[in-house]
Every structure is written in structure tokens, then in C-alpha cells.
Automatic annotation (TrEMBL):
This is DUF4306 domain-containing protein. It comes from Lysinibacillus pakistanensis. The keyword Ion transport does not apply. The chain crosses the membrane at residues 5-24, 71-92, 99-121, 127-147. Signal peptide: none annotated. Keywords: Membrane, Transmembrane, Transmembrane helix. Pfam families: DUF4306. The lineage of its organism: Bacteria, Bacillati, Bacillota, Bacilli, Bacillales. It comes from the Bacteria.
Amino acid sequence: MFKYILQLIIGIFILAVSTFIAWYEGSAIIDNSLEWKYSTPFTDLFNIDITNGRDISQLDYFVYSAKFQPLFPTIMMVCVLYILSVIGYYLIKRNTNWAIGFWVLTGCICILLSGLIFNSPTIGGRIFFGMTFISGILSMAITVIVVKKFQALTDC
């Protein structure tokens, strides 16, 4: 149990550091008024008119960072996937039914996210599409493996 908790603590720490750095890098959108129309989906979602850079939602900082400086948002995504993998591995060892549901849900969410950013023209968007799509496929593959193993154990 201790090794799972330690891995989760390390993953969460790296996630927090990379989140702060990505947020800082994304704050450059304040000075880039040409991107306000294309990189502010959360501000648009909240129906806020941007008259100056301070009107932009903090969540849009991450969008801007992911589009134009994708290193730390990618590290964030890897950390989230790692944390989910540790939780999923722990669930496989504890309760197979929970693990199956967990991996199916994770796979569906990843594939849906990849569909949202499918045709992105930026390098960051393409990186995130690839990561989420491959992660979704891997999650579904893990589900199939767990189901096959579970069926093999129950058939014996």
C-alpha cells in the first residue's frame, strides 16, 4: 500500500509544479491580443467580452500554453495519466469489476477528448490529440486484457 501512496504523492507533486509553470507560461496570452479570439474557449463559454487581457479566464491560460508551449501541459497530462494508471493498477489487484469500469471510463474520456482536438493546426494540439487518443486505446486494451484474465480465472 505504501508504494502506491508514494507514487501518488510524487505524481501529484509533479502535476502541481507543472500546472503552475504551464499557468505562468499561458499568462502570455494577456499581451497577445491576436490570439484572444482563437485561444479563449472558457472566456467565451462564460460569455465574457474581452476588452483587455485581464478579462481572460485563468483556464484559458492553459489552452494558450498547450497550443504554443506544450512541454509543461504535456507533463501535466502524463502525470494525470500516471496517477490514473496507479489507481487503475491498484483497483485491478483489489476488485476486478471496479477496474474494468475504471479503465472503460478512462478510455472513453480520453477518446472523447481526442475527438475534441482532432484537427488542431498547432503543434500542441497535435501532441495532445496523439496522447489522448493513444491513452484511450491503451485503456481499452487494458480493459480487454483484464476481462480476458477475469474470464480465464472464473472458467477454471
